[in-house]
């Protein structure tokens, strides 16, 4: 008599065990993302970060979402822990750029949701630098659209995550906190955060300037411009704006326009109505139509908002309003 045990091919337990085993084998086989593949994905992300500086948000959004879906597909499969961390880092950075595109396009609800996704991915990665970066970037949404308390909170949280490091992200977070505090009229807190930003900025290493996550001197000056503008220091604001504009290349996205609009806001706060509206209208129209998105409209409208109600019926204000009401893409 043979020692082998006959197996009933119709045994449901056997069928289930076989099906599960084959599924496990497929999962193990699919967990084969190599370091070379990850390096290629990193290279692609680095390229996108460079393109982000000058590419209009609408086509950029399509590129980001395509690459994000590829990374998501890999992350959905079982991967070794070290691979999963790198994929979570990529998802966090890509989701942050998606959120920023949506913010520029005025899709605020979706932008807010994508920033939340970016924070989840960053926290999942455990990378403190990326966790702080996502929060500092997310502070821009409430800075431009409110509430300012959220902008201060997010920027401060980012700064505190990096409080024991000299990191460019730490300088960015402190500058973002200073700018938001200045808009709240908190001069003492704004000055303290700004001093911290400069201390960190001077001590940390600086990478490539043409990168969506870079924070070069011109960006630091942009944030300093906001501090001076909203603390009512028109002369200092104009000097900083001039310095910053000299550092921007010809193809550099919307930052130069934001600086000129802050110049206009300073003029409006000083009741120089005609010049403020003229400068705001020119700054808005000089931006290529594909970059002339909701965030610029909102910033240009702020020039009108800081004027007393009694001045908002003036001819120069009406003309600026007509420019801002032009259909998208109008030259």
- Rg over alpha carbons: 25 Å
Number of domains: 3
Instruction: State the distance separating the first and last CA atoms.
Output: 93 Å
- The CATH first-level class of the largest domain comes to Mainly Alpha
How would you spell out the order of helices and strands? Answer: HHHHHHHHHHHHHHHH
Give a verbal description of the structure.
It is a single chain. 41% of the residues are buried. The chain has helices at residues 12-30, 35-51, 57-76, 81-104, 108-125, 128-138, 140-145, 148-161, 168-183, 187-203, 217-230, 234-247, 255-269, 273-286, 294-305, 315-324. The model is unreliable at 1-9 (pLDDT under 50). Helix 5 runs antiparallel to helix 6, helix 6 runs antiparallel to helix 8 (148-161) and helix 13 (255-269) packs parallel to helix 15. The chain contains 16 helices and no strands. Helix content is 73%, strand content 0%. The protein has 3 domains: 41-126, no CATH class; 127-250, Serine Threonine Protein Phosphatase 5, Tetratricopeptide repeat; 254-331, no CATH class. The chain is elongated. The chain is mainly α.
Topology, please?
Blueprint: H1 12-30, H2 35-51, H3 57-76, H4 81-104, H5 108-125, H6 128-138, H7 140-145, H8 148-161, H9 168-183, H10 187-203, H11 217-230, H12 234-247, H13 255-269, H14 273-286, H15 294-305, H16 315-324
Helix pairs in contact: 2-3, 2-4, 3-4, 4-5, 4-6, 5-6, 6-8, 6-9, 8-9, 9-10, 9-11, 11-12, 11-13, 12-13, 13-14, 13-15, 14-15, 14-16
